[in-house]
Amino acid sequence: MEPFFDIISSETIKRGTMDIFDQDAVSVNISDRLRKLREERELSIRALGRLSGLSANALSVIERGMSSPSVSTLYKIATALEIPVTAFFEEKPPKQDIVLIKSSERNRIPLHRGLWEGLGGERYEGAVEPFMITLEAGSSSGRFPMTHTGNEFVFCLRGKLNYEICGETYHLEAGDALLFAADQEHQWHNPGNTVTNALIMICGFKHGETPGKYHLASSAPESIE
After folding, report:
1. Could you tell me which of 126, 131, 141, 144 has the fewest CB atoms within 10 Å of its CB?
2. What are 46-69's pLDDT values in tens digits?
3. Nearest-angstrom CA–CA distance, 222 and 225
4. What's the pLDDT tens digit per position in 173-190?
5. Is domain 96-217 annotated with CATH 2.60.120.10?
6. Could you tell me the strand order of the sheet in which 160-165 lies?
7. In 3D, which of 222, 170, 210 has the Cα closest to residue 78?
8. Where are the domains of the chain?
9. Shortest CA distance to 155 belongs to which of 133, 177, 171?
10. How far is CA 192 from CA 19, 27, 39, 166, in A?
């Protein structure tokens, strides 16, 4: 099977949009998983809204499957539920010291105008979280910047990607890499008119932390984009 970023049709690339359900990976139903995780903790939508800083209406829209969350929204929800964001993939993935993920076995979460694919961090027992993002033209990680401990490595596979770190913008094109201390506020954006693919790896975070505490958006309320 060809790599994910090589099997998006040329017409899709030209339009700067994509049909994320054409690929042979494992799609995750965010609405069902969110409802189950919330109800397991006996939280109302309004209570989860208070904990996450999101409006009850925004959460309701996600639970009803009427909208996909942005990256920052997803992390806000995971943090409020006190779970790793990978809990949206599977309930209790076994931890291993060697993890092989075939291209057709990647867990993935549809995001607002994009896709997030896990690359084994949800199964690995070490402190590393690799994943790949696919962004439609003009899409981004969300309205608010994110912070977390450790370091973040970004490799742009295709298209263009702008990373804003503490107010300064770094422009990446295919083949470019970026590495920075991730306790600085940061967010990303696809400024081009084609699909962008990027590999991101978070590592060196504090012992005992979970991926659900990474990429935390600001505490200001956020609407579904």
Report:
1. 126
2. 999 999 999 999 999 989 888 877
3. 8
4. 999 999 999 889 999 999
5. yes
6. 168-173, 160-165, 186-189, 146-147, 216-217
7. 210
8. 96-217
9. 177
10. 18, 26, 40, 22
